[in-house]
Amino acid sequence: MTTLNQTGLEELLFRRSKMIRQAITVIQTLTVILAAHWATAQPSPVAASTNLAVSNEDVTVFMRSFQKDPAASFKISTNPKRVPLLLAATQREPAGPWVHFLQGFCFGSEHATAWRLPSSERSEVYSQAIEYLTAARSTVAKAFAAEPQNRGLKDNLGTLDAGLALAYVESGTRAKEVLTIAEALLASNTVTNWNYGNLTYDMHSLLGRIALREGDVAGAKRQLAASGKTPGSPQLDSFGPDFVLARELLQRGEQAVVIEHLDNVALFWANPDNRSSLTKEHQKKIAAWKETIRAGRNPDDHQWQAARVPSVDSTPVDETALRNARRQACVKQLNQIVAAKQTWALDKAKEEGATPTLADLTSYLEGGKPRNCPDGGSYVIGKISENPRCSVPGHELPKRPN
Question: Of 112, 203, 237, 340, which is the most exposed, with the fewest CB atoms less than 10 Å away?
C-alpha cells in the first residue's frame, strides 16, 4: 500500500480544502440567485435549530459522513441540527470546511429568503445568525491566536467576519464594526487571491450601504463606483453581482450613477471576451434594467433584493488566471479613457482627429486620471478616432471597424 509522508498529506488536505472552499463560494452565490424559489419551497428560518442538543457521537457521525459521501454537504440544508453540528465540528477542526458550510448552508439560505419575511421576523433571523456566527468566530479566533501562520484559520476568521458584517448591515446594527471589518478585509485583499474580485465588490457594497444609512449619499456613490472596479471572478462572471446598494441609491433618485455602475458590471458579466454562452443573455438583462431605470422605475429582480454572502479565501490563483485578471483590469481602464475622450469631444466640439491630453480629460475621469495598469504599463491617449493604448502586449481594446 502506498503511504503519504507528512508533506504529501498536508498537500492533499490543502487541495481538498481548496476545492471545498471554492465549491462553497459558488453555492453561496447560487443560494442568493435561487432564493425566489427557495422562499416558497424551504421552511423559513433555521434559527430554531440553533439550541438543539447534539452528542459527541452525533458530531463524529456527522463529520465522518463527509469522508464517505461526496454529496454530504448538500444534505446539510435538510438537517434540523445543522447549526449545532457545524459549531461542534468547528470546535474540533477550526481550520476545516465547517465554517464555510455554516455560512453558506445556514446563514446563506436564511439570508436569501429573509427579504420576503416581515421586518420583525427578519430581525430575528439575523439576530440568530449573528449569535452562531459569533460563536464560530470565537472558536476560530482562539485557534488562530495560537497558530497565526495557519492560512486556513486566517481565511475562516475572515469569512466569519465578512458574514457578520453582512448580518450587521441587514439587522441595522453595529455600523462601526462593519466599517472596521470591511476596511480590514479590503486592506488585506490582494489580486493574487482567486477570491479577490468577489471581496472587492462585496466589501465596497457593504461600506456604501453603511454610508447611506448615515446619510452620506456621496460616500455611497463612491463605494458603488469602487465596487464596480472589480476585475470580476469566476462567480461574478457567471452569476453576476447583487445590486442592493444600487437599489438603495435608486431610492434616493441616483439613476445616473447606477446606470454607470451597470456599464462597469457589463465589463466582466456581459463581456464578449469571456466567451460565455450566457453573455448575450446578460447583455439583454443589463439593457432591460437600464431601460427600466430611465423610465423612472426600479428593477425588481432578485439580484436587486438580496446581497451576496461574502467569504474570504487567500488561495493563490494560477498565473494564467492572474494575467487575465490584470489584462481585464487594464482593458477596463482603457474603456474608461474612451468614454472620457468622447465626452470631452462632445463638450468641446472637437473633431475626430483631435488629440486630447491627459489634462484635458481630468474632469472626465474618476480621480482625475486613469488608474495604473496592474502590470505597470503606460497609456497613450491617442486621437478621438483611435483607441487608447497600453504599452503591455495583450492589453488592448478590439480594433475599431473601418
Answer: 237
